[in-house]
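Q: Second attempt. The first request was missing the SMILES, so the protein and adenosine-5'-triphosphate are both included now.
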Amino acid sequence: MSKSATTETGQENKEASQSGKRFVYQDDEVLDKEFDWGQVKRLSRYMKPYAKQILPVIVTMMIVGALTKLLNPLLIAYAIDHALKEGNSRLLMQCVGGMLALYLIQWAANNYRIRYTNTIGQKVIYDLRHDLFSHIQTLSFKFFDKRPAGSILVRITNYVNSLQDLFTNGVVNLLIDCVQLVGIVLILLFYNIKLGTAIIVTVPIMFVISTKLRLHIRRAWQVVQTKQSRINAHLNECIQGIKVTQAFTQEKENIAFFDEMNMDNHKSWNRASTLNQSFNPIIEVTGAIGYCILFWFGAHLIQQQEITVGLLVAFATYIGHFWEPINRLGQMYSQMLIAMASSERIFEFIDERPNVAEADNAKPLPPVRGDIELKQVKFEYEPGRLALKGIDMSVKAGQSIALVGHTGSGKSTIINLLCRFYDITSGTITIDGHDIRDVSIPSLRSQVGIVLQDTFIFSGTIRDNIRFGRLDATDEEIEFAAKAVRAHDFIVNLPQGYDTEVQERGNVLSMGQRQLISFARALLADPRVLILDEATASIDTETELKIQEALKTLLAGRTSFIIAHRLSTIRSADNIVVLDHGNIMEQGNHEELMRQKGIYYGLIQAQYRFLREVS
Ligand SMILES: Nc1ncnc2c1ncn2[C@@H]1O[C@H](COP(=O)(O)OP(=O)(O)OP(=O)(O)O)[C@@H](O)[C@H]1O
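A: Got both inputs this time. The predicted holo structure:
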């Protein structure tokens, strides 16, 4: 990132938070970088796999198209100076036939070229989107902690789309325009060096004026991108949080905030677009100056008998073709700048390394019994703020551990570390004596299953959702797992049973049903170590009993860590670990801890009091 990186919208966010607004987004910075050839090189690498196959066809078609276009004015000049002057109608017809043939060849060549460039462009975009998505899938939790989902979405959709034009037409048009420009310049100079030079003089003037605009245009488009990124982040957040919004009747505030963002985006787009449009008048004015020079100086040269009328007409046609590529090059330049900004953002993600990286010599974790040891484990999410302050814990295979403690005491952090969603800051965690940092991540996670409190249901059928635990499971195995965790009964009562379609997040299912599905999913995966974040939501007694029974089946014979909220789970745990501010304060089974009359005793008393009051 350049030193001159500015955070225009970041500043706005600061102001937003100071003025008490609810939504504050960490925006992408607006980057002020010079045109970056490294970026172009990196993008062009995506074309490499198709270069051998398709590029020769495109280049041939491009040259044929450009040459036929360049030849036409010469044919016109010939027709005027010979066929018309001599009154030779046969020759005139031959010239017209020649022109028609040239137009047809040009049309066919362009047609082919467009078809092939579209193919190559789509392939490149497909590859880029694939790379970006698959890379994001591998990134660690820390990466997602820092970014709103909406801004990630923008990079996969909008930013990649903005490269689409560049790859489908831009690159090839650039080459065509360059070939055409060079061709015209050579022809003009070849047929009359004086008139040619007089016309070409206007080109540098045009470039100097237009390049002055380029930096402004580039920055303006970057601002548009950051504004769009904010809108997406906000949209995503609002859709995810729609229930809370409606429950607290905050719709109006949300709409007002969105309108403000929308207007902001609209204004920045207008500004960028206006700047972009200023290219055209510049080109038109310079073009008009070019025509004036041509006719004034050309007429003079005809009088001097240095050129023919036909050549003047040909030059006038060439000037028409001349401004066209220059105009397109100007537009192309701003298109390139937008693409540069987009690719910067895309490659920034692709270059992001997972915080949790596998060791070079990582070996697969052999099938484990499930003995787990934490020694002096310290961890900080952010430097200088320890979430765990030196945890020691020894768990025998098959034991169940209940993690209890006040909110923010470090319970989820322990389970995050066991699954290696984050790497510990110091200390060691071993499974059957293997340090979890020395083994490959998939081999670890396939043996350490996790059921989160916020059960995620993907769009698809109930069957597919359970199969997520093990993709090669048969339908019979899926039903067996569902029966074992007492989910089968409610599933068969759904309209299409196991084939009932549920949408993302499983909104049509109750909390308890979602939990049972996630239990079936975990049972199907059959991990040796199971981590469970118990749902705190109050569910009816019948479902509670079902869940208790399901839990017994699920946990049987496995080492389990449970962030326990239910008294029944806590009581039956082999070991209860009481955490407070990242430290273990007490450890033991229910009876032992109750006798101690410490923190645990207090927590249990409070729960009993609460239950008594509720009932
Ligand atoms: N992603 C994160 N980034 C920064 N700090 C975090 C993150 N997650 C948790 N923390 C901090 O780490 C500490 C421990 O959090 P943790 O989620 O482990 O608590 P917990 O005991 O599971 O709480 P709860 O019962 O409310 O879920 C808290 O102070 C919390 O603010």
